[in-house]
What we know:
Blueprint: H1 8-17, E1 22-24, H2 32-44, E2 50-52, H3 60-68, E3 77-83, H4 102-118, E4 122-129, E5 142-149, E6 154-160, E7 170-176, E8 179-184, E9 188-193, E10 197-202, H5 210-223, H6 230-249, E11 253-254
Parallel strand pairs: 1-2, 3-6
Antiparallel strand pairs: 3-7, 4-5, 4-11, 5-6, 7-8, 8-9, 9-10
Amino acid sequence: MTTRHDTHAGAVVAALEAGKHVYVEKPLGLTVDELATIHRAYGNAIDRQVMVGFNRRFAPLTTLVKSHFSSVKSPLVINIRTNAGAIPMDHWIQDPLVGGGRMIGEGCHFVDLASALADSFPVSVYAVGSAKAAKSALLNDNLVVTLTFANGSIASITYTADGAKAMEKEYVEVFGGGRSAVIHDFKQATLFSGDLDKTHKKLQAQDKGQKAMLQAWLNGLKSGQPCVSYESLMANSLATILAVESMTLNQPMAVDLSVLA
Length: 261
């Protein structure tokens, strides 16, 4: 069943209270209060798994890039650019109460991707949006988000609705330990090492990881070991919501799950 964003948190809580495992499409919730309600329900559930549809961390090219940096011990520098395209203002995702705006509704994908590439939890977030008349922070779809992670890695996410459709939609760069990598729209990737080594990988078709994510989720249910930790999913969801609050207050926000207690 397809549901709009304002129904997600309530459905997750109801499922947990019924003793069910939960798979929910992004976003997990629209507000810190909604995340807190889920957090309480999860704390009262026994051996239940929660999974959010953050598929890009499971994409084959994401896996390839993570493997490329697996031996790197130093923090990573990550740059993600999303040429998202415009959505009409009367679309439901632009309704602050129903869709929550595009940063919360869609930008969460890229916060989670950055976290997966960094292999660490976000600890702070700072966001700025372009100045446009009649665009609140919640509905701003032209913004830059900076994340810091517990292991010292950093990430910058540029999300824009104002680009040309002729340009590829998603572009990812990763740097660290004398290595670099680029993902082009989850269709091809290039891995760089040292001065001369360069390896190119091109897929037959774009793959953002949806099938692999669902298989990993099922495998996690069978084994009892979640494919993504609840704490990671919740921290990345909280960081996304706090990015909007950061734009509103014009200051960095600490990402601390204790605020949900």
